[in-house]
Amino acid sequence: MEALMLTLIFLPFLWGLLIFLVDRVGFTRTVFVEQVLLSGLVFWLLRQGEVSLVLGGWPEGIGIELASGGFGRLFLIMTAVAFMYVYSYLWHQHQEDHKLFLFLGMLQGALYALYLTRDLFTMYLMIEVITILASILILYERDAVSVRAGLYYLIFNSVGMLIFLIGVIALYTEVGTLNLTRIHAWFGAEAAAGVALSVRARFALACFMTTFAVKTASFPVGGWLPVAHGYAPTFISALLSGLVVKSGLFLYINVIAPFGSSMGFGITLVLGLCAALYGVGRAIFQTDIKRMLAFHTVSQVGLMVIGLSMYLADGGLGGMVHAFNHFMFKSLLFLAAGALARMYGTRNLTRIHGVMRSNPFLGVAVLVGVLAISGAPWMIGSVGKTLIKYSVAGGPLTPAVVRWVTFALTLINLGTAVSFSKWIAMLFGPREKSMKLFGGKAFAIGMMTVLVVVLYPLEVVVLGLDPLYKLSSEVLTYLGYVGAALGVYWFVLRDKPPWAVQLGRFVPDVEMAFFGMLVLIGGLHWLLVLG
Amino acid sequence: MMFVTVTACLVILIGLYGIVTSRQVVKTILCMNLVQTAVILLLLSLASRTGSAIPIIGMGTGGMVDPLPQAMMITAIVIGASVTALGLFMSGKLFHYYGSLDWRVIFHKDTFERTD
Question: CA of B109, closest CA in chain A: separation in Å?
């Protein structure tokens, strides 16, 4: 049983290496067999419940521990699905590019290792490996814009992980172990005894919060995300925006939440709100199809962070549910955006029209993705958003704060609807020449469309939700968002006013972005250590 | 040891200051490397115990130093070297494309519109 857990980590890497060494397209096709095998392994692991393994036969708490359980299982499912669509999507264009399969195999193995590890240092190591591999994949096209995006991603995330390493050192000197199970038990015992967090523990928490903010692209350190996700190859953008960006959330659940700090809860809430509002505010004025989606990732991850803050406060699951659902619909939207950009020869949203007539299959996929991300009733996007909304209303916040947060959530939903009204406009209009989608791409987009649609009833059953609960009010609210969004589009954005174009093109200086990071580091340490 | 710890903390702060104020890509990477080295120094200073034996069975008597920080730091050094090497490779490419390593030039010069 334990050997199979290790297989999950090493098989993708070894298979990728084999594909690279054999260097034959015939053999490269076996990558799909490998993905089916890995999906089977994940399914088997999920059926086993809580499974753990200490490497090297060391006693528990001493050796490196791997375990499958808790939210980690959601991430395992996401990884299995992600690589299925990545390989399908890239097949037509990159089937002879065997080096790419090596890097993707290594990335998949590292992601499985991250989601299985119960050891703080291995977690650091895996996130760093993922950062390096993601940078290589971002610059894969090796043109000027990709290399710039790859370097920006590498520097920002590596600095974030250095701060994490300092936090690991501080926590290790305090607790004396790197095993997460033992660290959780230690914090539990301290909390039960009523002992307040020591200065060293609070310092470690501030370091982890900084890394969390960097990895989830929170304001003001989220500048790297639109650059990196906007200019990577499409399948990498989908992988990064759907899956890799959520490694920060995994870090939060496993490393930050056990501290049980009430100050940490407040900071997380503020970070989430700032990111969500900033992301959606910038997305509205974007005309580049992929940059707009990247800004929406900032916004949606902000929503998840708000949900996670509620997890810390009252155990609300909305953040994690939204993370899982966001992976599905954002992957779909990125894949569809890549296909559209390729077909029309432009990434400018305003130059793409008539998608529903030119390629109805892609039109339906886009429509499903837009409905899901805007939180339409009976689509998966609405599940997480609704859970977060009710979690905020029923949490420990004061009524005044609840009102402000609810107002912010309304603005975020409205902004998302306004922003995606441009996508709806793209669907209609005169038919362009007939545009075909190649097999692998069609399969990847079709698979994600089906998943986005069928997951709603599944989640209703698994989470025990009532699909009719306040349905009429939810439908009316959604229609209100759609009406307002179409109004803003028709009267303001449609004619592309110069000020909107300028806002869309605004790129903060790199110095400003790094300064934002320094302010965040200082601010968090001041609040958590000295406050 | 206190002196080494304080020095490591100071070097971390200098490195962070350098990252924020550098306008050159290579300088940013070097400052990042400086922080990395200082973090390694910090952990080694915290983990060292004067008079303790090296952590190998059969070598020395009495209490051993904690071997875990040393194992961690060897790995961190490898990661740091990889990040620096990759960063410098990208810097070379950027200079080839933009003719400059100034962040401001690099970020305000869009060479072409992407279609994928």
Answer: 9
Q: Does A37 touch chain B (CB under 8 A)?
A: no
Judge if A318 and A407 occupy the same domain. Answer: yes
pLDDT under 70 in chain A at which residues? Answer: 1, 312-315, 433-434, 508, 531
Kindly state whether A347 is in contact with chain B, defined as any CB-CB distance less than 8 angstroms.
yes
Per DSSP, helices labelled H in chain B are 2-21, 25-47, 67-98, 103-107
Q: Which positions in chain A touch B106 (Cβ < 8 Å)?
A: 148
Half-sphere exposure of residue B22, counting CA atoms within 13 Å on the CB side?
A: 17
Measured between CA atoms, the residue of chain B closest to residue A344 is B115
Shared domain check, A446 and A363:
yes
Main-chain dihedrals φ then ψ at residue B23, nearest 5 degrees: -100, -10
Residue in A261, A140, A282 with CA at minimum distance from that of residue A204 = A261
| ipTM exceeds 0.95 | no
Angle at A205 between CA A203 and CA A207, to 5 degrees: 70
Statement to judge: residues A105 and A167 lie in one domain:
no
Last residue within a domain, chosen from A96, A118, A140:
A118
Residue numbers in B near A142 (CB within 8 A): 93
Across chain B, which has 116 residues, the per-10-residue mean pLDDT values are 87 92 92 94 82 74 78 90 94 91 80 50
> A174 and A113 in one domain?
no
- The residue among A99, A118, A137 that closes a domain is A118
What's the domain count of chain A? Answer: 2
Does B114 lie at the interface with A, CB-CB under 8 angstroms? yes
Q: How far is A288 from chain B (nearest CA, A)?
A: 10
CA distances from A404 to A118, A176, A393, A401, A420 (A): 37, 42, 11, 5, 24
What range defines the domain where residue A68 resides? 1-118
Other Cβ atoms within 10 Å of A199 Cβ, number: 12
Q: Do residues A157 and A106 both lie within one domain?
A: no
